[in-house]
Specification:
75% of the residues lie in helices and 0% in strands. By secondary structure, it is mostly helical.
Length: 178
């Protein structure tokens, strides 16, 4: 795989993640609880990690966070997204090779829980009140539900994307246990 092909693929994945992030920001909340959303752009981060590796997924995440905040979130949105994204990314990095591809949803659920914990930590810091921690149970329940949803999406998209990337870019993809 050439650097140019890899860069083109990373740019495409970043564009998809950013588009999903901005589009999802325009959707009214599904649940009347602040901060709860599907997190569909995280599918792209997980797929990138499964296909290309941790470093590449981190690059896609950072660019999406910065540009997404510029387009749809502002500085406060960046603080919450960065804390949650960093926590989720660390969990994904630690677990992507531990679980087989058919259990990618488990990685996604644990990453969603870490994402919520990171955002909750920022909320406590910004508000100066530990009472925000009571909100954790609602966020945990939402994290499990959305994590399962995005995890299955990432699993099926990874399977399809492996074939497409091999055929289109004529390159080998990063392989996790099957």
């Amino acid at each position: 795989m050439t650097k140019t092909k890899k860069l083109a693929l990373l740019a495409a994945l970043t564009a998809v993640a950013l588009t999903i992030f901005v589009a999802e920001a325009q959707i009214p909340p599904v649940v009347p609880v602040p901060g709860v959303k599907l997190g569909l752009a995280n599918i792209v981060t997980l797929v990138t990690m499964a296909l290309l590796g941790r470093r590449e997924a981190g690059a896609v995440l950072v660019v999406r966070l910065i540009l997404g905040s510029a387009f749809a979130g502002g500085f406060s949105g960046l603080m919450f997204s960065a804390a949650g994204g960093a926590a989720a990314y660390i969990v994904m990095c630690l677990l992507i090779k531990v679980f087989p591809e058919k259990l990618m949803w488990v990685v996604s659920v644990l990453a969603a829980l870490a994402h919520n914990a990171g955002q909750l930590a920022v909320a406590v810091w910004v508000s100066g009140s530990a009472s925000m921690l009571y909100y954790g149970t609602v966020l945990a329940a939402a994290g499990v539900i959305t994590g399962v949803f995005t995890g299955f999406g990432a699993m099926y998209l990874t399977r399809a994307a492996k074939k497409l990337v091999k055929r289109t870019f004529r390159m080998e993809v990063f392989t996790i246990r099957s």
